[in-house]
Amino acid sequence: MLKTSDPAExxxxxxxxxxLIIEMITAAKSGHPGGSLSAVEILVTLYNDVLRxxxxxxxxxxxxxFILSKGHACPVLYAVMAQCGYTPVEELKNLRKLGSIYQGHxxxxxxxxxxxxxxxxxxxxxxxxxxxLAARLNQSPSRTYVVLGDGEIQEGQIWxxxxxxxxxxxxxxxxxxxxxxxxxxxxxxxILDLEPLVDKxxxxxxxxxxxDGHSIPALQKAFAExxxxxxxxxxxxxxxxxxxxxxxMENNPKYHGVAPTADECTKALxxxx
Amino acid sequence: xxxxxxxxxxxxxxxLLELGATCPDLVVLDADVATSTxxxxxxxxxxxxxxxxxxxxxxxxxxxxxxxxxxxxxxVSTFGLFLSLKCADQIRNIIAYNNLPVVLAGNYAGFSDxxxxxxxxxxxxxxxxxxxxxxxxxxxxxxxxxxxALEFALKRNGPTYLRICRNPTPVLxxxxxxxxxxxxxxxxxxxxxxxxxxxxxxxMAIEAARRLAARxxxxxxxxxxxxxxxxxxxxxxxxxxxxxxxxVEEHTIVGGAGGAIAEAISSRCRAVIDRLGIEDCFGESxxxxxxxxxxxxxxxxxxxxxxxxxxxxxP
Lengths: 273, 315
Fold this sequence. Notes:
- The structure holds 2 protein chains of 2 kinds.
- Chain A is of the alpha/beta class.
- Chain A has one domain (7-271): Thiamin diphosphate (ThDP)-binding fold, Pyr/PP domains (Rossmann fold), CATH 3.40.50.970.
- Chain A is built from 10 helices and 7 strands.
- Chain A has helices at residues 7-28, 33-37, 40-50, 74-84, 124-137, 156-167, 188-191, 197-203, 216-228, 262-271, and strands spanning 65-68, 144-149, 173-179, 182-183, 186-187, 207-212, 234-239.
- The radius of gyration of chain A is 17 Å and the shape is globular.
- By secondary structure, chain B is α/β, with parallel strands linked by helices.
- Chain B has 2 domains: 5-170, 3-Layer(aba) Sandwich (Rossmann fold); 185-310, 3-Layer(aba) Sandwich (Rossmann fold).
- Chain B has helices at 8-22, 34-37, 40-45, 57-69, 80-85, 88-96, 125-130, 143-153, 202-214, 232-242, 257-266, 288-294, 299-311; strands spanning 5-7, 26-30, 50-52, 73-79, 103-107, 136-138, 160-163, 168-170, 185-188, 193-197, 219-223, 226-228, 244-252, 272-278.
- Chain B has a 7-stranded mixed beta sheet with strand order 3-2-4-5-7-6-12, sandwiched between helices.
């Protein structure tokens, strides 16, 4: 596993991650490219720089925890974990196929190194707060990172968890909102607007960092600031672009949940060369 | 019946308080009904291991799941109605799917939240929980069994739903052999008819069987506290012998104990089966015992239904 804090090296991993995402979803003929591509820098920065984890010892009790609450974006998680050495890269093309470890949503029965199976939206922040509180009770240095979708936080349970996290001063949990502005049926602002999103999290008692979710140095700085913030949990509002990196997918609601065709795949890989 | 009575919820609260001393990993969560469910005593003694999450059951359930992934032993406590309905997604998609050792304590179950009316009466919780893979479902017959089942559930390597009655009910198993997970409890040996009873109505079935016996009807009486996994072998043995099975429960007859028992028997032997429980309807406010009676859960009705079943030809 390449652990590095060098943004240039992380950027290379990010580009390769995008290529893997495009290839695996094309092969699967179904899946969620848009929200996978928007979260690439977030996951690469976490897995290759920030997280304290060990692919050779995935159950290390004091490891940091990562939860992909927006489980449909699992192609990005699979690509990142595979490149870290948790799972085979060459099997990524079997995404969503019968018997594949790369299920349509993250499934711990197939990949034991996952912290939890997820998929039904709205639950990851509660789960992560449970893990963070357990670390507190167990006097473990473990921190928990939860990636939420922007459409996902329309779920009421997210705000139950937000209230709870602040009230109980759970400062070892970080919520990252992949704010790509698009959900399945269209633009978030046209379905159920989240604004003012930064103010919402602030008013719930969280330390909020508004950041360019495709800037690796900005994300590194945000994660460091989150770690240094005591007494309250941190929400990172990652301003992202749905479909980032592939011109015809960017900001296009169509690619929330539609796989690229073979031609589109070729074109996308040329752009990501 | 003049036996001593005890409320399962009180036994639950006392048990948690005592287990707090011996089980350092025990964590209790409640959703603003801790006074009612009796978890508040644990909360007072072990504030660092008690979380009253407020009126936010879904959040509570997934926080417990997070605890369980880190080696703690969480007990999630609220009314069975809310646990089985408001948290169905959290229980199914996180706790059961991830096979996490969480104890789901469904309090005020059946009609026992009697005066609050239909919105609060958990009469479909068993059907819902039973349909989830990895889930164990235990419906104790008295406060003694509840305590033993809780201790078992806290050691089980997977999720367990524990059904808890609010009100005092007769103590039946004080001097009996301890609860055995997945095994029925044989309360009477007979040959004419099987009565398979689950939960609070157990004391009623004991009384009905006694009266039937006095009239010369020999009842094979089984208490079925583990509804998942159900003790198919013992049930089939009894059904094969008597050919007639009456199931009794404080729950809708759609998918509850009657459903579980009928499923176990019907694929393995031939018997006529009648399911006594709440018909497919909502409850209402009223005194607990009067409510049970009104909806057909009484020793007299068990006796009546047993008589009717005896009229039917064995297959």
